[in-house]
Amino acid sequence: MRLILLGAPGAGKGTQSKEITKRYGIPQISTGDILRAAIASGSELGTKVKEIVESGRLVPDDLVIALVDERLKQPDCRQGFLLDGFPRTVAQAEALHQLTDIDFVIDIDVPDAEIIERLTGRRMHMPSGRIYHIKYQPPKVPGVDDVTGEPLIQRPDDSEETVRKRLSVYHEQTRPLRDFYSHYKTRSNEKAPQYVKLNGTSSPGNISDTIFSLLDQARKSHS
Ligand code: AMP
């Protein structure tokens, strides 16, 4: 089960990833999480990308492609994996398909106005990646993680100005992947990924149910 979750920032990729990885036991590979961890650790990579990530622009293709290449070689990816936030450009997608076949591309579609509201209200517990929303999914105590009692933060790139920048980057560079995957051109011996577009404005539970029935079906017809 080799999956890609596509969609604008804030479309719900992270939330759905957690559900999918729990159900199917495959690792989630989030390039955003990897880059944020590198920034938090102060590594050479982190120092290099900090300013780019915090301004809402994209990190250079060769850098993220190398990260993903390295990650896909780990033994836990043998039974499959879920890519969240990668590929984000056509060049990344081309490079990815040189590395591996992909079975499904699930595209979560949410209008811009809703994305802005979701992201600017989003709060995060950094160590666990747990996500809240000040209006739609508030923590029991404002500003504090329900499980650990530790403080929640607003990601520096979730400020309104940066969210607008990230959305324009999405429209220019990532959205073309819709066309890329809905008219996918296979190379020799390659299996074309199945592209599915979902309405991302329904409840997270409904979206997970739709994804599960699709993937369960595929698994059944495979076994
Ligand atoms: P995310 O958590 O997926 O929204 O990613 C946060 C930020 O990390 C993005 O705004 C980019 O600056 C950077 N980033 C994550 N994934 C990629 C990628 N595939 N290509 C380039 N930059 C990325």
Could you outline the blueprint of secondary structure elements for this entry?
Elements: E1 2-7, H1 13-24, E2 28-30, H2 31-41, H3 44-55, H4 61-72, E3 81-84, H5 90-99, E4 104-109, H6 112-120, E5 122-125, E6 130-133, H7 160-174, H8 176-182, E7 194-199, H9 204-222
Parallel strand pairs: 1-3, 1-4, 2-3, 4-7
Antiparallel strand pairs: 5-6
Helix pairs in contact: 1-9, 2-3, 4-5, 6-7
Question: Can you give a write-up of this model?
Answer:
The structure is a single chain. The protein has helices spanning 13-24, 31-41, 44-55, 61-72, 90-99, 112-120, 160-174, 176-182, 204-222, and strands spanning 2-7, 28-30, 81-84, 104-109, 122-125, 130-133, 194-199. By secondary structure, it is α/β, with parallel strands linked by helices. The chain starts with a strand and ends with a helix. Adenosine monophosphate binds at residues 9, 31-32, 35, 52-53, 56-59, 64, 85-86, 88, 92, 157, 166.
Distinctive features:
single chain; 223 residues; five-stranded parallel β-sheet; 7 strands; 15% strand; binds adenosine monophosphate
